Input
Amino acid sequence: MPDAHHSCETFAADCPQMQMLCGTFTSDKWSFQPLTVVLHGRSGDGKSAWARRILLHWARGKIYPGIFSYVFFLDARDIPSRRKSSLEELISREWPDSPVPMKKIMSQPERLLFVVDGFDDLDIALEDADMNICADWAVKQPRSVLMCSLLKKVLLPESSLIVTVRHMGMEKLKSMLISPHYLFIKGISIERRIQLFLEHIMNEDQKIQVLRAVLDNHVLIDRCQLSFMRWLICQALELQMASGKSLPPTCQILTGLYTTFVVHQLTPREVSERCLSPEEKVVLKGLCRMAAEGVWTMKFVFYSDDLGVHGLTEPELSTSKLRRIILLRDGLEERYFTFLHLSLQEFCAALYYILEGLETEWDPHALCLENMKSLKELKKIGFNIHLLQMKRFLFGLMNKEVVKALEDMLGYPVALVVRRVLLHWVSLLGQRADATSPLDFLDSFYCLFETQDEEFVCLALTSFREVRLTMNRPMDLMVTSFCLQHCQRLQKIRMEVREIFPEDETKVWPILPQGMETKPLVTEWWENLCSVLSTHPSLQQLDFSGSILNEWALRTLCIKLRQPTCKIQKLM
Output
């Protein structure tokens, strides 16, 4: 095996991104040899591309030579969990026109590698994972049982596994695995993302404006991993500018971009038809309802029977208007639908609660929290990681301009019944500040920032007397400033600011093309935050202990706090 490992390392020298995978199935210095490797990361960071690349490079003899005799690629989206089959039949799909040498394959299970792409898309209930397992590869079982058995090392325990999963599916996956090795997939570099992002902007005069709008916005930059998302963001930005709107210092609310994009896709261009037809509205509501149920249950692949539950048909979802939102794909056995990106499903899920309100018959995952008494219950419903972006979109849909765009598309006023629920979410955090984590405080600030509605934000923060925040990214400063200036009864702040300042605040971004240089907005945002703190009417105690501030940031803070408007009595 040393020769095989050396060959793999030689290949990795020419392809550095593969280097971390080359030694994953060999013993480490403690003689631990994992049989399961998990590739995890955010949606769109290239995990599926990595999985397919592993298969390709193994076939070419460039990775794991001499270690595996057979490698099987199992696309979770193409494994309907309700169907029954044996592992033998599942594998046999790879040889549709010839006899499968099954006995030969199974004679050396230690030389088998299964690449399971998209664990999040496997419809596996945790109770199934605990109770229904199968050790016989020739016995027919529901495919969810087969996949559970494979992952839990009950079926072919000597074989090796590579599993891809989004962050939101990590906890569920961890509960099923035995001694896995985890590898984080970072995606393409910021430099490359910006380079590719600029290629989507045709108007040279707009490049600087658009670039400045997104450069310091990690929410947008993080989404620029996929070509489709770069295209979506650029198109939405250009549509906003074409309508005569000037872009803010940063493209502030993600919900506004998605609304612009979705309305542009769905609304007819003809002047005589400014809104959707009654039939199209019914389809949109059904689509959004399916999206909502999918987000709550972490279901991202929809088959024909899923469509029927929500009153949808395949032809309705295959129209030209919807092809940029949800896509029909051909599987090995049956066709299925997926949203073009998880974030589009999350947006449509949030939109469902606006289209239908809370007064509906279909309500398996009620948003109404009137009877909620504990923060523990609140976190269970509203702060699970897989609900995070849907929740932020919900707040963003309270924005007045977004509401107007939706009303123009629908042709009738939108009743924001969900508004009171969102206010309750945030106010409960303020009432139980001692039990609220800094992460939850910051998340609620991002939610409120999405609204860009000062009246709404003031009302939501009425109960806040104390907040604790940890800030790791420049945009955290801007979001915090926006909320603190509308939190008029606040008395105590504990703020831990990490290393987010440039060494030289006068330097421009070093990664931009020549002639397009612009200064990072972090300096402007820090000055604004310091101003908000020094002019706050009720703030009495400010705790910066644990913060890492450079000389310029500390000097700026001190200058602002010396102003006669500052009401702070205790500084730590």
